[in-house]
Design goal:
The protein is α+β, with helices and mostly antiparallel strands. It has two domains: 3-92, Phosphorylase Kinase, domain 1 (2-Layer Sandwich), CATH 3.30.200; 97-288, Aminoglycoside 3'-phosphotransferase, Chain: A, domain 2 (Alpha-Beta Complex), CATH 3.90.1200. 47% of the residues lie in helices and 16% in strands. The protein has helices spanning 3-15, 59-69, 107-118, 129-142, 149-164, 202-208, 214-225, 231-257, 260-263, 268-288, and strands at 21-26, 32-39, 42-49, 78-81, 88-91, 96-97, 171-173, 182-185, 188-191, 198-200. The strands form three sheets. Strands 1-2-3-5-4 form a five-stranded antiparallel β-sheet, covered by helices on one side. β8 (182-185) and β9 (188-191) form a beta hairpin. α5 packs antiparallel against α8. It starts with a helix and ends with a helix.
Length: 289
């Protein structure tokens, strides 16, 4: 049974129906297989985590996050989550994925969603960025990888940035607020996929926009603060984006080491190099501010 046949069987069982059909697979992301499925005239998404996804996501924490976010009304309705496997069935949001747009045209509505999140009383755990990064580095070492000297040096620069911004108050954050997780439906912006939500510097969310290009993050920052960003605000943005790039560098190294480059026909070594070079450029930009 292939993944599509499996998903059809699971949706039929969960929805007590026999007419589930695959519409298409959603692109994006490095960890999950997510499909749009239609049954009884309604569309849903069904997520099947890829190999080793459980090493990067705490599914109990994700479920707790979903319960908190439901109070804000900005997430799609989750119908089912399997804590052990991480499989999830949710109502499909028909709309425009922001990554399919110029992104900046939606800055105003995106800022409104961010401030709703950041000013909320949602109870999240600390994101613990450096704790996560240490885990990802350990996963790589366990697979026989030795981080090069250049990485160690850049990691030291990142720690210096962290110390400089240690006093910034943490608030509820999505922590994966990239345009692929944002869907504009009619006049409402939906914020999807709360796997990594936690307490964090609010500018961490804005830095996630860097996945669509760092210029998009810079534009969103100006819209968020309502003025030309100060040097300190810019440093925080550069710092968090540098961290994110090193985080994804380690994820890519691990995925290559466990054979996912071959399984997914994606050269994760090239992905790792891309993120490391970007992290280096951002760190150099930070030093010039």
């Amino acid at each position: 049974m292939n993944v599509e046949e499996y998903i059809i069987a699971r949706v039929n069982a969960l929805m007590h129906t026999q007419d589930a059909a695959i519409v298409n697979r959603l692109e994006g992301g490095m960890s999950n297989y997510t499909y749009i499925v239609e049954t009884r005239g309604k569309k849903y998404t069904y997520r099947v985590p890829g190999k080793y996804a459980e090493m990067f996501v705490d599914r109990v924490e994700e479920w707790d996050n979903i319960q908190e976010v439901n109070r804000l009304g900005i997430n799609s309705k989750t119908s089912y989550v399997e804590i052990i496997s991480g499989e999830k069935l949710a109502e499909y949001v028909e709309g425009t994925i922001l990554s399919d747009t110029d992104v900046v045209s939606y800055n105003e509505v995106s800022v409104a969603a961010l401030k709703k999140i950041h000013n909320s009383d949602m109870h999240f755990k600390e994101y613990d960025a450096f704790g996560r990064l240490a885990n990802y580095e350990r996963y790589c070492r366990q697979k026989g990888f030795t981080h090069p000297r250049e990485y160690t040096e850049l990691r030291g620069r990142l720690e210096a940035m962290r110390d400089r911004h240690a006093d910034v108050p943490h608030v509820p954050c999505h922590c994966d607020y990239q345009p692929t997780n944002l869907v504009m439906a009619a006049d409402k912006l939906y914020v999807l996929d709360w796997e990594f939500a936690g307490l964090n510097d609010p500018l961490y969310d804005i830095a996630c926009y860097g996945n669509a290009g760092f210029d998009k993050a810079l534009s969103l920052l100006e819209a968020y603060v309502g003025h030309e960003p100060t040097a300190d605000e810019l440093r925080r943005l550069y710092y968090h984006r540098t961290f994110q790039c090193l985080q994804w560098y380690n994820v890519a190294i691990f995925k290559d080491r466990v054979g996912l480059s071959q399984d997914l026909n994606m050269d994760f070594n090239n992905v790792a190099t891309f993120f490391f070079n970007m992290a280096t450029d951002l760190a150099n930009g930070y030093d010039k501010l």
